[in-house]
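Write out the bound-state structure for 2-acetamido-2-deoxy-beta-D-glucopyranose.
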Amino acid sequence: MVVLILALALGLGLGLGLRHPQGGGESPPTSSPSSTSTPLSPPTSVWKPTSGLSWQIDLTDTLDIDKNDPVVTPNVDVFDIDMFLHQNNSVVESLHKLGKRVVCYFSAGSYEPYRPDSYKFDKADFGDALDGWPDEHWLNISSPSVRAIMASRIEIAHKMGCDAIDPDNVDGYQNDNGLDLTSVEAIDFMTFLAKKAGGLKLAIGLKNAGDIVTDVLPLVQFAVNEQCAQYESCDTFSAFIKANKPVFHIEYPSDAPTISATESRSACSAPGTSKFSTVLKTMDLTGWVEYCDGHTASTDVVS
Ligand SMILES: *[C@@H]1O[C@H](CO)[C@@H](O)[C@H](O)[C@H]1NC(C)=O
Ligand SMILES: *[C@@H]1O[C@H](CO)[C@@H](O)[C@H](O)[C@H]1NC(C)=O
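---
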């Protein structure tokens, strides 16, 4: 037992000593090249990312990253990927080996008909369809049944070895949802999700939901924001930067993927965006990305 603990401590020490070149905070738990054959172990403490980390987000594809790949494109600190598209492959492990942190995305506040656990939802918990996504419904986020399903999703993220979760659609109260959702319910739901995640040593981000930033900021480790430059609301999220927590910021310039200097500037230099981690994307959130320095990249994906 003592030997085991010693070995573990040594292993951890070695792991922590290895920082990846881009300075993505502490190293992920499985990045030590000497431990390539050990199975993926869940994190032992909650990841606390700092503001300014670089990132990529692809919610459409399964990434094509092999365990032996020496690099990933783009070579950024953090990858935000669709949880279910990576549930049964080794992409999270491969990203960890490359020194990357992995944020696992799922929808927490909407029903999507095509997920492996979609059958679990009770139609009584459905609200209106989401604007632009007719198959997707707002969910009653106060329903114990919905919360149990989301708790199971967080357990999946934990089993996969994700460093964090990106629970989407917690801002139903800002939309026509057909359930009279309130911001008070959204805060309570985020509190529920954060407790569940923290219990499993997973970090959690606040997705959009500007009105509840003040209440939720102490519960979460980062923000993921869409279009605050477009809607002139980036100042709301700069509270995260003041707390040295990253704002993973996405804008969808109308001319993407051939973005003019003017469009890039209005996305990247909007008031309040100082130290934001900004990516310019097409609305379908594929592997293509442009950064504020004009650099573009495409992550390899499974076709
Ligand atoms: C992954 O495997 C689990 C367990 O076999 C299964 O229930 C689930 O549907 C699979 N997920 C996907 C996205 O294929
Ligand atoms: C949502 O769920 C809560 C808890 O079960 C319930 O009290 C409330 O009436 C539900 N809301 C709607 C609009 O059905």
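---
The domain at 22-298 is CATH 3.20.20.70 (TIM Barrel).
The pocket of 2-acetamido-2-deoxy-beta-D-glucopyranose (ligand 2) is lined by residues 140, 142-144, 179-180 (CB under 6 Å).
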